[in-house]
Write a structure and sequence with these properties.
The structure holds 2 protein chains of 2 kinds.
Chain A (H helix, E strand, L loop, with lengths): L19 H8 L1 H22 L2
Chain B lengths: L2 E5 L3 H13 L5 E6 L3 E3 L4 H5 L9 E3 H7 L3 E11 L9 E7 L8 E6 L1 E4 L4 E2 L19 H19 L4 E7 L7 H17 L6 E6 L14 E4 L2 E4 H11 L2 E4 L2 E7 L2 E6 L4 E5 L2 E5 L2 E2 L4 E2 L8 H4 L37 E3 L31 H18 L16 E7 L7 E7 L20 E4 L1 H18 L11
Parallel strand pairs in B: 1-2, 1-8, 2-5, 5-20, 8-21, 10-11, 10-18, 11-14
Antiparallel strand pairs in B: 3-4, 5-6, 6-7, 9-19, 12-13, 15-16, 16-17, 22-23, 23-24
Classes of the chains: A mainly alpha, B alpha/beta.
Chain lengths: 52, 484
């Protein structure tokens, strides 16, 4: 059997990279606190929908 | 007096036991059989597996808690189920084999009025030669596996620090694996710990997966709204991997692992190989493998279970081809068709089919993620089953409670790092887990409950959830207020 070397997913090479602003937002405590509340609300929605 | 027998003490089994004990009067018995002496919060095994959390933080002994709660506990594995009893047992019973030091191997029988099968998966490392801790790769599926993974990782990081360049492969060890989210999270954590150690530039990190494309996660991928556009989990994952310098091999079925080399077949039918210095590959799952016998002793295992050993419940197992699949195929009550006093919850129930589109290579190899049904869905299903059982024991003529995966959501947070400001996370929510294209024609899911984002917020959320679920599992005051 002819065995080949790995072929990596080429889509990663052209995927969009985050901007410097996005990277800063991911670490900004005030911004992330607001997102924390947002994720909480989203999870409450998910949890409530699953508990009938 | 009724006896509720629960097989397994994982997320589903422990949830079932605690709610059954809370909701049933003292005159009723709740009995748990589990081969392990400890409870394990499996999602946090990822942190144990990169050496960032002690194993004691994710496990605790079950016996003292069950003694306090008056739950009868047997450290044993279930060997066979006899739903109709036999000449010596009027009620249904289960034969168990002790796994406890001192009585190991001793068999006994436990009769029941209601049986809840929460046996979870058998980790089927044997499906791929060389896979797993007894082969050449590590795993984070159990707490001891995670400890071993951390030890091997530590040695690899020491080699990186010494100036060697190494290749790390993380992913799925078979074409039919599930829990791709766990492999994704371990990849994310490896990247984080190697950056922390200042050796990331010496390491090549590869995500090897049975998903046909990145972001599938065994749920057919997600669509979510972001900054006024609908985007996909595929693009989201590709972007994250590009940013973190992770390469990916998709649509792969590992055929054999030998020291330092993984052989795999891809969806194009071509067999390739990738060498590695450290590999964490998840195994495929099988059912627990209990035999089932009728009153005359005839083996009815194949009637009760699907070919993979998972217990059939109220699902449509005749759905046919992918194009005919529907949300209605998925079970609602988790009651077995043959016996109205036997249920299967969590990984133990047989799903009607995959969620991701099934794919086969030109050689005929199936490479399709199995549907995930761990974590939040396991807990919700187990509680729903208990509510049905409690109603019946209390003589309430109500229909069975329902908990369809086409109605419930789930969250998957891949979080790395331990400090408040130094961590990072990729968080996903989905609603519902199984797409329902009748209810949500665009993507099969509710865009308001389906999301993906990266940042500290998810990292905080993951730590909050870790402490909340362990608090709940330890039955601390008002534990039952915390949802599954």
């Amino acid at each position: 059997m002819h065995v080949l070397k790995p072929q990596f997913d080429p889509a990663i090479d052209i995927a969009p990279l985050p901007t410097a602003k996005t990277l800063r937002q991911r670490r900004n405590l005030a911004y992330q606190f607001v997102r924390f509340l947002g994720i909480n609300l989203k999870m409450i929605r998910v949890i409530v929908s699953g508990h009938h | 007096m009724a006896t509720v027998l629960i097989l397994g003490a994982g997320i589903a089994g422990h949830t079932a036991a605690m709610h059954a004990r809370r909701l049933l009067g003292r005159k009723h018995e709740v009995v748990v059989v589990s081969p392990s002496a400890n409870w394990n919060w499996v999602p946090s095994n990822i942190w144990v597996g990169v050496g960032k959390m002690a194993v004691e933080k994710v496990t605790f002994p079950l016996e003292p808690l069950y003694r306090r709660k008056r739950i009868e506990f047997h450290q044993a594995m279930a060997v066979s189920i006899h739903p109709e009893g036999d000449a010596e047992h009027e009620r249904g019973f289960v034969t168990i084999r002790s796994t406890m030091v001192g009585t190991k191997g001793k068999e006994s029988q436990i009769e029941y009025d209601y049986l809840i099968n929460c046996t979870g998966p058998k980790l089927n490392f044997e499906a791929t030669e060389g896979l797993g801790p007894s082969g050449y790769t590590v795993s984070v599926c159990t707490a001891p596996h995670a400890v071993e993974a951390a030890e091997q990782l530590e040695k690899a990081i020491e080699r990186l620090k010494a100036g060697e360049e190494l290749r790390f492969v993380v992913g799925t060890g078979h074409g039919t694996c599930t829990c791709e989210g766990a492999a994704f999270e371990y990849t994310f954590n490896l990247d984080h710990v190697m950056r922390e150690a200042g050796v990331r530039d010496k390491a090549e990190l590869i995500y090897l997966t049975n998903e046909a494309e990145l972001g599938d996660f065994g749920v057919g991928g997600l669509t979510f709204a972001q900054q006024g556009f609908q985007t996909t989990s595929k693009l989201w994952t590709e972007s994250l991997f590009r940013e973190r310098n992770v390469r990916a091999i998709t649509g792969a079925h590992c055929t054999e692992i030998v020291p330092g080399v993984i052989h795999y077949e891809q969806l194009d039918g071509i067999v390739r190989e990738v060498d590695f210095d450290f590999a964490m590959l998840l195994p495929p799952f099988r059912g627990a493998g209990m035999a089932v016998y009728d009153r005359e002793g005839n083996d009815i295992t194949e009637t009760m279970n699907n070919p993979a050993g998972f217990m059939k419940v109220d699902a449509n197992y005749q759905a046919g081809a992918y194009e005919q699949w529907s949300a209605d195929d998925w079970p609602k009550t988790y009651q077995t068709p043959l016996y109205d006093n036997i249920f299967a919850a969590g990984i133990a129930f047989a799903p009607p089919h995959q969620i991701s589109q099934p794919r086969v290579t030109p050689r005929g190899t199936v490479i399709t993620p199995a549907p995930p049904r761990t974590g939040m869905p396991s807990g919700i299903i187990a509680k729903s089953v208990v509510l049905t059982v409690v109603d019946r024991i209390n003589g309430k003529a109500k229909p069975a409670h329902e908990a369809s995966m086409t109605k419930m959501g789930a969250a998957c947070i891949a979080s790395a790092g331990m400090s408040f400001t130094g961590g990072s996370a990729a968080s996903m929510t989905m609603h519902p887990v199984v797409p329902d294209f009748k209810a949500y024609p665009v993507s099969g899911r509710d865009l308001r409950g389906t999301s993906g984002e990266i940042g500290l917020a998810g990292h905080w959320m993951k730590h909050v959830l870790h402490h909340l679920f362990i608090y709940k599992a330890k039955a601390r005051p008002f534990w039952w207020i915390i949802p599954e």
